[in-house]
Records
---
Amino acid sequence: MAIKNDHSEGPVAKAIEQQTAKLPSDIFLWAALASMATSATLKIMGKDKTALFIGQWAPSFLLLGVYNKIVKVEGSDAYDNAG
């Protein structure tokens, strides 16, 4: 059953989704893990502020990975083409 949607994504959102859908989803997981490892290394080296800054990237990478996965599964034009 298709859901009726009265609006569609703009051209910028569609262009971004077309490009992000090309990226493998595990890139974002590896980026998050790398930021955590880098943060831990910096913390051990005594660079606390830089470690905190780099460590805070991990949730952003994971969120981008979720967005990437949703775009691959659903896409913005799923509703545009369903009608």
---
Amino acid sequence: MSQVKGLCVMDVDGTLILEEVIDILGREVGREEEIAQLTSQAMRGELDFESSLRKRVSLLEGLPVSVFDTVFNSIHLSPNAQEFISILQKNGILVGLVSGGFTPIVKRLAKSLGIAYFSANQLEVKDGLLTGKLVGQIISPKVKKETLEQWREKLKLPKERTIAIGDGANDLLMLKSAGIGIAFCAKEVLKQEIPHHVDKRDFLEVLPLIDFLE
């Protein structure tokens, strides 16, 4: 790739993909309703993200790691997401994924889309089964923002050359930290604070908001 001209950091669940991965995992363990309710409360900003995440993950205890193959095969990219990412990459804009979801899915998604930068939560595994615990740093709203800033510094880019796209309350700090923050099919809490929003689930609608595309 020629010189990097910009950075676009995207949320994954509910933004890049249609689904919330943790809700699909909940279905596999027979706790979908309970988990989905906690997810939507957290995304609307009604629950603390980190404690809600720990609670949801605890309900996944005992699931085999092979469940991630099933989950990966049942997720769908948002319309025109792949084309959107290709257009950015061709224009020298690096794409990164920052997710409150899980590494086994985000890593595969990143690889399939030719994305080098990604960050997600790590689930603890023992004897091929999920323990219901997280390991390492939690990708909290604050960590999402810090990740965007670290990547920007690493690429030596000014703030105005950064884009952040997300849909939930946990994306707010990251969107505010970017030169262009875009609330994509977002929860009301995000739309109230972020001036740019796209309410149609089509990533090509995002392109006109990026003022430094060739």
---
Amino acid sequence: MTHRAQVPGPRPEEEVGFVGLGGMGQPMALNLAKAGTRLVVWNRSAERAEPLRALGASVAADVDEVFAHARIVIVMLLNEEVTDAVLGRGTPGFAKRVAGHVVVSMGSVEPDYSRALAADVVAAGGRFVEAPVSGSKKPAEAGQLVAMLGGAPDTAAEIRPLLAPMCREALFCGAVGTALLMKLAVNLYLCTMLAGLAEAVHFADRRGLDLGMFQAAIGSGPMASDVTRVKIPMLRERDFSVQAATSDALASTRLIVNEARAAGVSSPLLDLSSELYGESVDLGNGRLDMVSVIKAIEARTDALGHSPDVRATR
């Protein structure tokens, strides 16, 4: 019997780079640091790096310093434009940075962009893995994200151990692009599910039902999940403190719609959900949690133009 050799992750003595310490990146990097990973970090807003410094991470003056010290560099940035700007893609400095390095892109970008970035990294003498994550702020803080990996199998296997403090699961999906497509499929379900959950809470509330009992009914049945356990109390209490922003949900739905149309795929539930997230953003809720989509549903109800006394007796 042939035994396949284990592919090691980063060596204990080597530093790992982490670029991008935003709402998701900072708790992810903190979990790495708490697990004993030696980090060298950088963020455009320098104050975001201070909690990492307090845990012993090195704080780089710029991106070049990160690449100078770390063979594996995790990039967790907002979008394609920011990623290109930070890495210097399209400039002579890009190849110098990434040559001989493993670039791990954990942000949510378009699959075609990821494929093009991977090709540029490889052409410059580096290696590339996309590793988008499913989950919001609380799972990021708890180290309970789910990573989807796309890239060469041996490179994905090399970085998988590194992800353990951040992710409860790391799933290899195939070539570059497939992991991001998988995340879009997951997000399609999430975004439509949350819009449906908000509509159900709205219906129950407008019909005078006890929302605590509604929560108990969902929690006792087959639709119970980590999402319902977190989001129903938020909807009941009108707590829109951001875990995953409405503007990010809108951007995600639009990205999925574009991918669906390019492939000739219909997405009727997603299309309506995207409209609702857009209406919530237009109401000023872009930086609130995505459950603020209930405000768009409420606005549609109010626009019906009549308010008959249809509520049940509480």
